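Note to self: keep these together.
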Amino acid sequence: MSASRERPTLVPSLYAYAKGLRDAAPEAPLPRRGLPLPEHARPPRVPYDGPELPEAIAVVTDLLRPFLADPDPERAAAEVERLLTGTGITERVVFAAVDDIPPPAEPGACERARALARCLTRGGTSLAAVAAGLGLLSRLGEPEDVPYLRVLGLLQGLGLLVVRTLGPLDRKAAAVVWLVHRAGADALRGLVDALAGGDEATARDLLRELPTTPRELGPEHARRIAEAVALPRLLRRAPDHPGPLAPALFLLTRMCSGRGYEHEILAYDEAVALYETVAARAHELPPALDHRARLVSLALDLHSGAGHLLPWPPGRRRAVITALLAAVGEPGTPADREGRRRAEWIRRTAGRLREARHVAPSGAPRLRIEVAVADPGDPEAVETRFLVDGRPLVPAAFGRGPGGPPERLLDGGALRAGPEPKEVRLAEAYCTEGCCGALYVTVRREGAHVVWDGWHRPCTPPGLPPMPAALRFDADAYDTEVVRAERDLSWSWPARRTAWLISAGLRERPELLARWGLGRGWISTDFRAPDTTLVTFGGPPLTADGAPDTERPARQYLWYLPDDGTPPEEQAARALERLAESDPRGYPELRG
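Structure:
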C-alpha cells in the first residue's frame, strides 16, 4: 500500500477528532470560533501560491467529476483527498467549486455521489477533503447526515461551510453552529454553550440576558438565535410564561434592522409565525419605553419595510399592525432628554401609521413616497421609502441597504421629472456603494406619463432579486406625490427641520457661502447627537491674518448647531444671517 493510501490510517479523521474532544468534555465551554484543528490539518502559515480563483474552481471540478459515480466510495475518497492535498487549494474554494457541480443524472449516480460525500466528511483528514464532502452534501445530504455535520461544525475552518450544508437539512442545528463561530460577545457565550449542549431550559432562561447593543447583537445574530431556540414554538409552549416574550420582541426588532448586508427578516422562515405570536401577546408586555418603541418599529417595518414582503395571508399583515399599535399605549413624558425624544418619536410615528392604516389598499396611490425614521434608542439612517402599488420597492429590488436620505432625494428635487432623463440613486448598500452596490433608476417624462426605467445595480454581488420592470406613472399624479413628499416634514424633529430650512435658504441664496470662497456640503443632523444640526462646507483654510490660503489644500468644515428650544424657523434664520455677516471659518465652535 502506498504512503498516500496509508495516511488516513495514521491520523484520525477530522470527524473522529472533533467527536473525541467533545465526548471527553461534553459540558466544557466551547472556544470562540470553535475547537482547534489537529496539527496535521492546520493550514500552513505561508502565503497561498495556488491558482487564481476561476482556475482553482476548474481544477477542483475536473478533479472530482471522475469519482462521483465510483462504485468504491472509500477508495475514491482516499484518492480525492490525495489529489486535493496536492493542489494546495483552500477549503473555501473547494467547497464553492463542488457546490456548483450539478448532481449526476444517471440512475444510481446520486446515491454513489452521496456515498462519496459521506466518506469524505466522516473519514477525511484534511480541510479540503471534508470541504469537498460538504459541498456534495449541500445538495445531496439527508437527515442521517445531521449528527455528523453538527460535530464537524464545531471545528475551526469548517463552521461556516457546515452552516451552508446544514441549512437545508436542519436550520436549528445550522444556527447553533453559526453561533459557535460568530457569537463573540461574552454575554452570548453561555447561551451558545447551552444550545450546543442541548440544554434548552438553560438557553430559554439565558434569553433574558441578551446584550442590547448593535455591536454585540447584529441582525444575523438575532435571526440565528431565534432559529436555534425555535422561538415561535418556545412562546407557544409557554403561553402563561412572560419570560421569553420581551426577548422575542427584541430579537424580532433586531432582525428588521437595516444594519446588515441583507434583510435578515426575509431569511427567517418563521418570521410570520413570530410576528403573529408577538402581536397576539403584545398586551402582556410591561409598559416600558423600550417595549413601546420596539412595537412601533415592528409596525413601521410591516407598513413600508422588508417585513411587508413576507408571505402574509390576506389581511393578516394589516391585522398584525393594528394589534401592535393597540399595545403601544401612551409613552408619557420621561425625565431625561433622550427618553423624551424617544417618546415623541413613538407618538409621531404611531400616529402616522394609524393614519396610513385607514387608507384601503384599493385607494392607495400607484406611487407613495414616505420618510422612515428609526427608533432613536437604536438609531439608523433616516431613509426615503417608495411604495409602488402598496409594495415596498427598495427591499424587493435591492435588499442590500436602505433608501437614500430625504435630503438627497426630496430636498433638492432629485425625483422631479423634467424634459431630460436623469439618473437617480434610490438606495445604497449598508457598507458603501463601492463595496456592495447601489440601486439606480432613470426618471424621464414621456407624454402623459413619468417612466422609471434603466435600472442598474453597480458593484452588487450575485444573488440579488431580478431587476424591476419599467414603471409608468400618471404624470399629474406623480408630480402631485413628489410635491407632497417634499413638503411633508411630519416625520422630522426640530433640529432636522432647522437643517432642512438652512439647506433651503442656501439654495435660494448661494452667495452666502460663495462670497467666502466656500462650497456647500451635507446639511442634516448629527447621527450621534440627533438634536444637533450639522452644516458642512468646504474651502481653503485661513491664514494667520484671516485671509483664505489658496496655496494649501481645501478642508471640510463642520458647523454644529445644538437645538436651543426656539422654533426651527428662528434658528435657521439666525444661522443664515450669521453666514451673511462673517466668514464661518472664524467661528469658534467650528471643527475642520
